């Protein structure tokens, strides 16, 4: 276990290095920040001065090594748009994104656990078909469409919830629901199949044959064991959530990382894009690692060699 | 079994602790007092619970920065004007009025003398003096790295005559100096504060002389300004201004419909009816400085080198139809880029369009292309209001007369790269604004020198007129020179102007709001009903 942990931690270094190359090259290839920054009236001379000031006249590899050199000192460069160091700007947005991601996860859990259990225990019943059907729908529904529909219904028509922004708990409900639905759909199906598998195990049959109440069999024996894969999936989903709130944050103008990344891409604010992708990548790696460990702790049959 | 129990327990603790971290970090980032937050919910914002007068705006993007010299963004300036003052300001008719300068005179061709208002203080209490004028204007006139440098390098130096008098000395004679000083990049900065505390501190806690002072800025979320009780002018009308950034159109409109904001800018034409039909909101529309145009190559070897082909393109396009069908009426056809409200405007060419498809076909035949011509037509997608739809309609209109345009729709940054590299084909569509409110800026790309590689247009008469007008301190004669240039361009067509674009606003019925030509959002011009 210790060896496995050490190995995993060491693997993070080349992965992050690879990410740095990819991010750098991609950002470099996709657009010219100087054109976007200068006014229509700028002359070629103005342009040349700005390019030199930003260090963009250097060869690509020189720019990359400068970038990496600064990175090793924890310096992600300066945001063109804000004229401030990029990393603090990104970190400033993390709490908002975390808040949304956790709320979405809560929504997903609250929906999926009862639905998953009901589907499994009432297999092939009307309810099972209904829930399976809606989980396909929930998975297929695009976030932007669902988000706008929720705004139209709950904010514009019913005037029950605020349209956008962040602040109170009420602001959190619609975006969390928008984001949580897709995950809930995925988790419902997972819980259902995991539960079905467990319900077919010998020890459940034994428990039933001993004459235990069905609810005790389901909730005490089956549920606990069927949660093992669910917990790991939750950990994995949390990581994708952090990077995946882009559209939802834009719709609800939620001031998190997703919105920051979209704005930064639009303005070719390289430093912000690089810092944000790095932070997201780091979080994904860490939560994957946590998921692995969790899985190992929950189910001792799994060995890492 | 025990171990499994422990595992689930561990997972629960982990999940819970992240939740707590997530939640507990919220108050530290949302520094706004609780009361403000609740007032932004579904309650009407024009009057919050505590009875204070709050005005809430929603725009498509956040302000760029508080570095007033290092951006060129009209929507950022629209917010800044509530915090900062210029030496001179433009009123609603775009006439120059005293602001921080009470009077001015031309000493000689290259020297202007300004008398400064006395008793003005910055939000931090520093008095406003000639030192601040020198500091502000010399910074932008000398630092080449600043994005507005190009518009201020004409200033050579600022001489302090006494604490309330300055002389601005320019490199050449400078007839548009007042226009320069009444626009973005000319906000007066507190020199003492910046010298003592540093630029970074200023960017975090900006200080101006304006009617509203900085309270809080949460990037990509909201900027909050509060009333400046010490303002030298009329008492500010609002207790608090909130500028919210809501990039998604549908969300911005929904916020307006539910009363979450009082004014929403940049409303898509398709949503105008909904806002009008909704109880409690209406729309407001007004002309802007932006003109949509086609830039045409006159480069030898291209089909558009032939003036008859260029004229045919002009005659093939029905500008009125574009404005009516795509922009829901939000625009005015024009044959010049210097629209009313600008110095040197030519009213004969405004509000007019030439549409004559039969004559266009005839011209093509006369030019030697009875079977039509093929051209490349590049346009942006998503940069201007309905640009993609407009380009597609233009392509169809050109096709009607036999001009087969290969339409190349580009995302803005890609478009911009090709644009700056001057690599477009016969035709590209772009919209320019004019923050200088002067004809000189409009003809920036028309001269032989600047047109090289783009239009390759060269007309010695135009060059001479523009050169003379640039430094002409006889304003009457100068205006005539620009009027003449517009006539020549309308004839030669290196650029074909199509329509002036309107700005659409959604407005709450609780307030009175009239859009300005310069798109500035002066809070004190907006009143409660």
Automatic annotation (TrEMBL), chain A:
It is a multi-pass membrane protein. InterPro entries: BPD_transp_1_N, MetI-like, MetI-like_sf. The chain crosses the membrane at residues 9-28, 100-120, 140-156, 168-185, 230-252, 272-295. CDD domains: TM_PBP2. Keywords: Cell membrane, Membrane, Transmembrane, Transmembrane helix, Transport. Coiled coil: none annotated. Pfam families: BPD_transp_1 (PF00528), BPD_transp_1_N (PF19300). The keyword Membrane applies. It comes from the Bacteria. Its main location: membrane. It is found in: Cell membrane. Residues 94-291 form the ABC transmembrane type-1 domain. SUPFAM superfamilies: MetI-like (SSF161098). The keyword Manganese does not apply. PROSITE patterns: ABC_TM1. Belongs to the binding-protein-dependent transport system permease family. This is ABC transporter permease. It comes from Brevibacillus choshinensis. The lineage of its organism: Bacteria, Bacillati, Bacillota, Bacilli, Bacillales.
From TrEMBL, chain B:
Residues 25-49 have a biased composition (Polar residues). Residues 1-25 form the signal peptide. Residues 25-51 are annotated as: Disordered. InterPro entries: Peptide/Ni-bd, SBP_5, SBP_5_dom. PROSITE patterns: PROKAR_LIPOPROTEIN. Residues 95-452 form the Solute-binding protein family domain. PANTHER family: OLIGOPEPTIDE-BINDING PROTEIN APPA, PERIPLASMIC BINDING COMPONENT OF ABC TRANSPORTER. Belongs to the bacterial solute-binding protein 5 family. This is ABC transporter substrate-binding protein. It comes from Brevibacillus choshinensis.
